[in-house]
Amino acid sequence: MALHVIVLFALGIIHQVQGLYLSHRDGEGCRVKSLRKPWQDLTDLQRASYINSTLCLMDSPGQQTIPGAKTLWDELHYAHIAQATYIHFVGSFLPWHRYFLVVHETLLRRECGYNGPMPYWNEVADVDDLNNALVLDVKTGFGGNGEGPNHCVADGPFVNLRFQFKEDLTIAESPSCLVRNISDCSFTGASRTNLDACLAARTYDEVWHCLEAKPHIAGHWGIGGTMSNTRLSPGDPLFFLHHAWLDRLWWLWQSQDLPTRLKEIGGANIPVDDSDSPAGNGASSASGNETSSPSCSAPMGGAGGASRGHGGGGTSKPNKGLIDYFNDGGNTTTLDHTLWSARILPNVTIADVMDLHGAFVCAEYV
Ligand SMILES: [Cu+2]
User: Fold this and answer.
1) For 74-118, how does the pLDDT look when each residue is reduced to its tens digit (9 = 90+)?
2) Which pLDDT does position 295 carry in this prediction?
3) 165 C-alpha to center of ligand 1: Å?
4) Within its chain, how far is the Cα of 313 from the centroid?
5) How far is CA 320 from the centre of its chain?
6) Which of 34, 253, 304, 321 is 20 to 30 A removed from 292 (C-alpha atoms)?
7) Which one of 1.10.1280.10, 3.40.950.10, 1.20.1270.360, 3.30.70.890 gives the CATH number of domain 2-365?
């Protein structure tokens, strides 16, 4: 309840903010695309530069007036936690996370001088051997598994990372560590077969449900811990590589029929009851074992995972304030839908992010 009010308040404040921030774009369309490459294909130097720039975000003072946010990393965290109910299991799931990738990239480049390719995690390459994935390398990657009773990550560059916010946006008395609890069993959802099934989807409703289910959950539950928590997951820097991978899959699907799929959107703005779910799966499957064999253990992170009921989402009735805010004229997601990042960047609409080659995103997957 309290969280609901906070979110509405926060959303209301920024309702007037318009326009685009185009720090590394030229402001006139998209002439120089930002390259997005598999982490596996980056040079050691590029990997080190990306990790250092990420550490810089965790070390740089916050720039918004968000109580409790000490660093830019905290502010990114806040932007996801504050609206987790309205960016998962809804039509804006894919567009909002595409927007968030640009928000993150903008900070990384503008505030921390990163000038290499934006990495994504080619998960299908690691599906048979997650524990030896390059992203988990202690020296060149993001560190390994959690250890000890709390599963705090105990090696690699992010051992000292601490989170200010709890799931309800209250401030933790003692900031918590980065938690991982790797499950190669849960990661099997990233298989080529599952990806191909999503790429064969015929409508946006189908592809969104398909991608948000197995390929999405695989990365979150495969890493586990912080990553398996619906609200807190962007605390783990691997979040951005996982979501760039997912975004690439959406773009691959869009690219099969750009004239139609640059405009194709749908779904609800407020999570609806499972029975209303167009595909009748995906959203409803998220908290179960559908993405993995029954022997997979539940991930750490409590009620996190991709559980939709978390945080009061579930079967919320559309609220007029939110409907007005989203600007779709109802509870069906349209291209006019507002995307918000806690003022880190100005609001954009879904229309602004549909085209990877458009002025706002201006990127290319290679
Ligand atoms: Cu998310």
Assistant:
1) 999 999 999 999 999 999 999 999 999 999 999 999 999 999 999
2) 53
3) 16
4) 17
5) 26
6) 253
7) 1.10.1280.10
